[in-house]
Amino acid sequence: MAQTLTNTTLAAVERALIEEREEGAQRTSVMTHVVWAPPAWLKAAERTLAGLSERHPSRTVLLTPAPRRKPGIDAVVDVREFAVQGSSRCIASEVVELTLKGARAKAPASIVLPLLISDLPVFCRWRGEPGWDSPELEQLVAVVDRLVVDSSEWEGLPASYERLMQLFGRVAVSDIAWTRTEAWRIRIAALWPGIRRAKKVEVTGPQPDALLLAGWLRSRLRRQVELEHKTGRTVRRIVVDETEVEAPPGPAPTPSDLLSQQLDVFGRDPTYEAAVQAAR
Fold first, then answer.
1. CB distance 212 to 276 below 8 Å
2. By CB neighbour count within 10 A (0-12 exposed, 13-18 middle, 19+ buried), where does 39 fall?
3. Helix residue ranges per DSSP H, 152-196
4. How far is Cα 150 from Cα 81, in angstroms, rounded to an integer?
5. Mean pLDDT by 10 residues, the chain (280 residues)
6. Element (H, E) at 214
7. What are residue 86's phi and psi, to 5 degrees?
8. CA dist 32 to 58, 117, 275, Å?
9. Helix, strand, or coil here: 34?
10. 106: closest CA among 65, 62, 144?
11. Would you call 11 exposed, middle or buried from its count of C-beta atoms within 10 A (0-12, 13-18, 19+)?
12. What is the pTM of this model?
């Protein structure tokens, strides 16, 4: 059963993790997964994480800033166990939800560092649009190996891509919006060489997906391609010049599926970075 700690310390959080892990369960973490989730994004972050634990056993540290509250740290510590097929043993995924109150909200790195598992990669899923000049972003970028965002959660597009580009030399970046377009990009690429002289792409779907698809085409063809965007909840139609692209088969991936895919990726993605540069 999860432990709730009010106005606690990091030492108490570590003790709670040890107590929560039952005898016979072994920690098999493959990463430390940090999530920056302001209150408006907390429920969505929790729903996504619920679908990840068994696929990516990790220590997840979920940070929710509460700068207007009296300084301190509140925590919920849970160890989620999954049976190993053909064995009496279990694997354990650790989840630490921290509310950073008052000045603590401005110093997330000092909270995260003691909780990192040494010698394992560190991923940070940032919910919502980052405060591009904020100390919180600066600190977390300095301690993680990969920053995972979703530009469909942003309001400042396409200008925000300019700010995102400034992080490319400092940390590997993934974008859930880019991941969502993968099946469509495969379909478009299959039209080669017929699209080598394409001048226009029409995308019906979310603005970030459309911008990134157009940026990808421009970067691959090394010239300008006009974008005509029509709003939609998901990408449902793409036309390159006069050729309609066949829609990918199967259901759309869930948020957990999309994040899971990014947690298997290491290193920078030059194709994505070029698409961002050309999407502006």
1. yes
2. exposed
3. 159-165, 176-180, 182-189
4. 29
5. 93 90 64 96 92 78 97 93 63 89 96 94 97 97 97 96 97 97 97 95 98 98 97 96 94 91 91 96
6. helix 207-221
7. 80, 10
8. 6, 6, 28
9. strand
10. 65
11. exposed
12. 0.92
Residue 212 CA: distances (Å) to CA of 129, 150, 160: 17, 12, 13
In the numeric block, which tokens belong to residue 92? 């354990």
CA dist., res. 234 & res. 114, Å (int): 40
* Distance in angstroms (rounded) separating the CA atoms of residues 175 and 125: 10
Tokens of 47: 């729903």
- Compute the distance between CA of residue 110 and CA of residue 126 in angstroms, rounded to an integer: 17
* Sign of CA pseudo-dihedral 61, 50, 150, 144: positive
How far apart (Å, rounded) are the C-alpha atoms in residues 236 and 15? 49
What residue spans define the domains of the chain?
Answer: 3-144, 179-279
